[in-house]
Amino acid sequence: MQDKFEEIRQKALSDISKTDTMRSLLEIKAAYVGKNGSIRALLRGMKDIPADERAAFGKIVNDLNDQVTALFEDKEAILKEKELNEKYKSQAVDITLPGKKPQSGSLHPLNIVKNEILNAFIGMGFEIFEGPEIESDYYCFQALNIPKDHPARDMQDTFYFTDNILLRTHTSPGQVRTMEIKKPPIKILSPGRVYRADDDASHSPMFHQIEGLVVDKGISLCDLKGLLDEFVQTVFDDDTKTRFRPSYFPFTEPSVEVDVTCCKCHGEGCSLCKGTGWIEILGAGIVNKKVLEMSGIDSEKYSGLAFGLGIERVAMIKFGIPNIRTLFESNLKFLRQFNRR
Ligand code: DAH
User: Fold this and answer.
1) What number does the ligand 1 atom closest to the CA of 285 have?
2) Average pLDDT, rounded, for the chain
3) Residue 340 has pLDDT above 80, yes or no
């Protein structure tokens, strides 16, 4: 009998030493000291042992049970520690590795330029008024002295929803909408998207404009000149000069086209300014009296100045971008150049 006990003990020892996972250890443990294990089976066999040997037998089996259980517990402790170490190792973080650089976004060049322009004028006391992109024929044309069949409409051919509702072709309707609800003095900017059936290297069917309007007593071309000089010097540089060329817009009289000295050659003449030293930047003028009157402003008492510029155009000149499409292609290589951080 003694030999049998020793054999069980030795077998348990060898099984335990061969095991290297907690799961198989628990399986073997059940086979020895579990409810249906071999040591329990010995205890169940006690009834067949002669009564005077039973106590001694029981003690030996219990000792065996204790010894084998202790062997399992030792091994369990070893395996637990091993598993923990492996877990720590696999989840370890190498704090000496360089961190992942967060990708930071940046403003789109059109927003950079838009903000610069708005800020230049806000600094001079202008307020922002945004009109709707879907406009009526009245606000987009008629109230700006462009009646139906006026040739000026051809230049602004656009997308109509009905005969009277269209995608605005310019931000000038913002002038009318402001004058209808605001009494002079008025000093507003109306930025936003505009749409035209136009598509080439310098024109896009959708682009952005900023409209400016000042209405007060005694507003003249001198005010326009001073205002625009201040603006171009903020957006380009302090040496930038403006010049007025006579032009025609139905909603201004007189009308001018405004050029700035080329920001690349500073007036010497280069490829950007086609050798002239000047670049056209916006349209402007003194608000036509008819336009003031149609919007309910007394043209005997008040006069106004207005200007309208394309944000894409300013961005293309300022950053030397030859094709307008570059601004809409969302090419990250191009856009990242404007990340100033
Ligand atoms: N609305 C004109 C356009 O889109 C630009 C413009 C010219 C606006 C002269 C003005 C202005 O306010 O006075 O071509």
Assistant:
1) 13
2) 92
3) no
% of the chain residues with pLDDT over 90: 60
pLDDT score for 238: 92
Q: Measured at the alpha carbon of residue 133, what is the angle toward residues 130 and 134, in degrees to the nearest 5?
A: 135
Give, in words, the CATH class of 109-338: alpha beta
Q: Report how far residue 139's alpha carbon sits from residue 144's, in angstroms, rounded to the nearest whole number.
A: 7
- Does the CB atom of residue 208 touch ligand 1 within 6 A? no
- Would you say residue 300 has pLDDT above 90? yes
**In angstroms, what is the C-alpha Rg of the chain?**
44
Return the closest-CA partner of residue 171 out of 281, 309, 325.
Answer: 309
Name the residue of 126, 186, 307 whose CB sits within 8 Å of the most ligand 1 atoms, as the mutation to test its pocket: 307
Listed residue (119, 108, 111) closest to 338, CA to CA = 108
Q: Which atom of ligand 1 is nearest to the CA of 155?
A: 14
pLDDT of 143 reads 97
Q: Provide the greatest CA pair distance for the chain.
A: 135
Please give the structure tokens belonging to residue 37: 């294990």
Q: Where are the domains of the chain?
A: 2-90, 109-338
87-138: pLDDT as tens digits: 999 998 888 989 888 888 889 999 999 999 999 999 999 999 999 999 999 9
CA distance 162 to 47: 105
Q: What's the one-letter identity of residue 38?
A: S
At residue 341 the predicted structure's pLDDT band, cuts being 50, 70 and 90, is low
Of residues 242 and 52, more confidence is placed in 242
| DSSP codes, 29-76 | HHHHHSTTSHHHHHHHGGGGS-HHHHHHHHHHHHHHHHHHHHHHHHHH
Distance 283 CA to ligand 1 centre (A): 5
Which single residue is written with the structure tokens 């856009």?
A: 335
Whole-angstrom Cα distance, residue 184 to residue 276? 39
